[in-house]
Amino acid sequence: MTTLRRLGSTDLNIAPLVLGGNVFGWTADQARSFAILDAFVDGGGTMIDTADVYSAWAPGHRGGESETVIGAWLKASGKRDQVLIATKVGMLPGEGGAKLAPARIAAACDASLERLGVDTIDLYFAHQDDEDVTQEAALEAFGRLVDSGKIRVVGASNFHAARLKSALDLARTHDLPHYHVLQPEYNLVSRHKFEGELQNLCVEHNIGVVPYFGLASGFLTGKYRSSDDLGKSVRGSRVAALLEGNGLAVLAAMDDIADETGATLAQIALAWLAAQAGVTAPIASATSVAQLQELLGSMTLELSRDQLDRLTAAGA
Fold first, then answer.
1. What is the strand order of the sheet 18-20 is part of?
2. pLDDT single digits (tens) 213-271
3. Which end of the chain is more exposed for a tag (fewer CB within 10 A), N or C?
4. 3-class SS shares of the chain: helix, strand, coil, % to 5
5. Sign of dihedral through CA atoms 108, 114, 119, 124?
């Protein structure tokens, strides 16, 4: 039985792994996506993370493909009451303006609700900061969505510490919604964007953290160990820089711990994340049920303090 964790100060309780929805309707077709989603819920998973912009980057796509597939699965499976749905606004241009303009937030939320086929989005993220819109105006727009019952909890993704702090201060001063959850980039080989001031802020304010890129675009699965491996995937070019610096040292430490525990490198990477201060659950995606089953193993993997410390030191 998976032990649920409270997501920061919210009333949401989630398993220690969030399923990333970026692949649905892109590298995973509908049938495969349905199988992955079913296996995730059957394996104890509780939260699915998507965004309106998924997968606008793919040729012929406009955005909304992932939400549409998830919505079709929710309708076909009847499992809406078994999962929490997180989605985002701020990267897909459209009605109401761009990024976090209040009219854009309102229009994007309605579009996401329609694609998902739900009455309420459990966790709605500002996908990125927007310095062209006052933070007060954006928070007021999210507040109207909370008041109308269209969303339950507001989160922030890709925010720097200073901007998150100013948003928290504004919320407290003007009785506006707080960003209760943060979604940053964070993993064993990419730590500078979160560790330090931002992590400390999240711990201080009990902000639940659900990091993305937990496997560093596949690098932390051990798939890429030399330049000869970069052609194994379309993501190979993203991880080329990780072969330099401490990337290979991290893989070596992970290999040792894999020998000690019998766990896979992906499971070790996600378990390390789940053990970090402030982190509630890492996000990871899968393009097959077999991949998903491997990821689920991270939810019950408990690394020792010595193992955690060795991994941390290797990536320092």
1. 208-209, 181-183, 151-157, 121-126, 84-89, 47-49, 18-20, 283-284
2. 999 999 999 999 888 888 777 667 778 888 888 999 999 999 999 999 999 999 999 99
3. N
4. 45, 15, 40
5. negative
